[in-house]
Structures are given as C-alpha cells and as structure tokens.
Amino acid sequence: MAATYEPRPESVALLKKLVAALAARGIVTEEEMALRQTIAERANPETGARMVARAWMDPEWRALMLRDGTAAAEAMGVSMRGNPPLGVLEDTESVHHLVVCTLCSCYPRAIIGYPPHWYKSAAYRSRAVREPRAVLAEFGTVLPAQMQVRVVDSTADFRWMVLPMRPAGTDGWTEDQLTALVSRDHLVGVALPSAERKAARAA
After folding, report:
1. Which of 81, 107, 115, 177 is the most exposed place for a label (fewest CB within 10 A)?
2. Of the residues 11, 104, 121, 126, which is catalytic?
3. Is 106 a catalytic residue?
4. pLDDT digits (tens, 9 = 90+) for 72-107
5. What is the DSSP letter of 25?
6. Does residue 10 form part of some domain?
7. Which of 11, 79, 94, 101 does the annotation list as catalytic?
8. Does 124 lie in the same domain as 105?
9. Per 3-state DSSP, what percentage of the chain is helix, strand, and coil (rounded to 5)?
10. Are 103 and 27 within one domain?
11. What is the dihedral of CA 4, 114, 107, 147, to 10 degrees?
12. How far apart are CA 40 and CA 110, in angstroms?
C-alpha cells in the first residue's frame, strides 16, 4: 500500500499565516482559495479530450483553439482565472509535438488535471529534450523517420497542450465517441489516438 503524505506541522502553520496575510490585504479570501482548490481537484483529461474532439469536428472551433487556447477552455466552461495562458500545438502529417517542463512540472492542470509522476521525473524532463524519439518509443509511439518531432517547453508563463491528428476511420463519429479516443498521454504528445486501439479495447 502506498504511503500517505502528511504535511509537517510547521508547513501547515506557515501556510495558514500566508493565507491570513493575503486575506488581510484583500488579495484573496480563504473562500476563494478553497474554491480554486476544489476546481483544481475536479479537473481531469476529459476536458482537454472534449476540446480536441470538437476541434476535429468544427473548423471554427479548431481555429479558436489554435488562436487562443485560454478562450477556448473558458468557452467550455473552464475557469482559467489565475492560470497562465494556454497554447495549443497542432500535429500534422509532417510535425509531431511533445510537451515537457524542463524545470519542474508546469502543466495545463485546468484542462488535463494533475500531471502523472513520469511527467515530473528528472529522466523525462531531460531525455524528452535530448532524445525525444527514444522517449516516444518507450511509450509505444514510433514515428516515421521523415516526421519532425518538435519539443515544446511548458513554463510558469505559458502552458501547452497538443491537438493530435484525427485518427483514420472515425468519419461520422459523434463528439462523445471521439472524446473517448483521447487520453492525457495524447494531450502531451507521448501517444497517438487510434480508432483501432479503441476497438480492440472494446472487443
């Protein structure tokens, strides 16, 4: 069984002092902070997946996502207040995008949820830049030699998500069906969505 994490008493006391100081200066209230925490805990990859599915179906929505990811997220009902701007990277037949945070674990949590442990690891953060094809291969993603792999650094100032290419064989699919094809791994670029894999899992 995994060990549970208990913050140190001094850390809890320091946090309470910080919150009280922010509230006293009118910067933020405890209620606002509690609301932000609740929103963060509810965030999950389905939001990003639904944004992708809609982009595959609606050219105007796709254009909005690529132009202003933050506005697109807010149009989906996601509050982006307090979050860095969101950029969307469109994969093409010649370019594949891979997202990494080389310094820590910057991640578009509002639309994907909390980052997985491997995303935060020193190994991923360093190797994704040095040998992205090898990292992708370890996730089962082998790209054609002629396809460019573009590694993009997610930072405290700007967050990124990937808009993967729509899988073949999905013509006529509903938004819900397309959403079900997209996972967290597709949204950061370590994997590619596939209608065949979805069918295999359902069989």
Report:
1. 81
2. 104
3. yes
4. 999 998 888 888 999 999 999 999 999 999 999 999
5. T
6. no
7. 101
8. yes
9. 50, 10, 40
10. no
11. 110
12. 6
Q: How far apart are CA 183 and CA 116, in angstroms?
A: 12
Question: Residue 136's domain is classified under what CATH number?
Answer: 3.90.330.10
Catalytic residue of the set 106, 121, 183, 194: 106
State which residues form the domain around 50.
44-202
Distance CA 202, CA 138 (A): 24
How many domains, in total, are found in the chain?
2
Known catalytic residue at 104: yes
Please report the pLDDT score of residue 37 as a whole number. 62
Pair 130, 189 in one domain: yes
Residue 194 designated active-site:
no
- 24 and 54 part of one domain: no
* 35 and 112 in a common domain: no
The pLDDT tens digits of the residues spanning 144-168 come to 999 999 999 999 999 999 999 999 9
- 195 and 155 co-located in one domain: yes
Q: What is the largest CA-CA distance in the chain?
A: 58
- Among 51-55, 100-104, 197-201, which is the least confidently predicted range? 197-201
